[in-house]
Amino acid sequence: MLELFIPVRLLDFIDIFLVAIIFYEIYQLVKGTVAFNIFMGIFIVFGIYLVVKFLKMELLGSLLGQLFGIGAIAIIIVFQQEVRRFLLMLGSRYRSNRRISLENLFSNQYKFASKESLESISEACSQMAASRTGALIVLARESELQEYVETGEKIDSLITSDLIKSIFFKNSPLHDGALIIRLNRAKAARCILPLSQNLEINPILGLRHRAALGISEQTDAFVVVISEESGLISVSNNGELIDNVHAGELLKILESGCK
């Protein structure tokens, strides 16, 4: 016989609030992806499990409990990209909270490149956009992107405008793929990046833009894309894409961290 009145403590409200935050953050990560339907299925099963447990249905509750225990490993495998993004988001927020001011917030944000390097990148992008030369430039931050550097041709050269333009020149053997920049060095060109699985992406976007979104979803990298068809500049950061960035604005965006 169920009790008509259930004692409710302050900790119960805190518990519900924290669980709601966790589910909301997970929802934000999987929204618009192929994993969304899987998440909704798990959420429904979890809700049923809570009801069964509350009603003290021992046999069904034990069965569902075993299902969750075995399914935990499967969930991690299925959601490995989302789990990686979630942990990266937590780490990024922790590091951001340790900084006291906006000046401190952006002081280490682009430690991969000095002001001179950023000016070279901006100048090269402006000229490539004018000539409609397609480009995909990845700027590493806390994540060194070594696994993606290994997929391309290693350069390890100082960053100059002429170097970037020569890499993405249409007859260059290195133009197809991404240029990865880290710590004021062009580390590798023709690198292969993961494509975004977000179903809400504009279908007119090409592989360069999907790769830009993909790497910014899975890492903390900042990406600059130039469309070969339109010559428009786009930037991707934290899984979001900003289209039609004016060439004159790009340097400011790079310096401010696109926040």
Your description of this structure?
- The structure is a single chain.
- The protein is of the alpha+beta class and 259 residues long.
- It has 2 domains: 10-97, no CATH class; 106-256, YojJ-like (1 (3-Layer(aba) Sandwich), CATH 3.40.1700.10.
- The chain has 10 helices and 7 strands.
- The chain has helices at residues 10-30, 36-54, 58-78, 80-97, 102-107, 115-130, 146-149, 161-167, 207-218, 247-256; strands at residues 135-139, 153-158, 178-182, 185-191, 222-226, 233-237, 240-245.
- It is elongated, with a radius of gyration of 23 Å.
- Mean pLDDT is 79; it is low at 96-111.
CATH class of the largest domain: Alpha Beta
Uncertain stretches: 96-111
- Taken in chain order, the helices and strands follow as HHHHHHEHEHEEHEEEH
N-to-C span? 56 Å
The CATH homologous superfamily of the largest domain: DNA integrity scanning protein, DisA, N-terminal domain
CATH topology type of the largest domain: YojJ-like (1
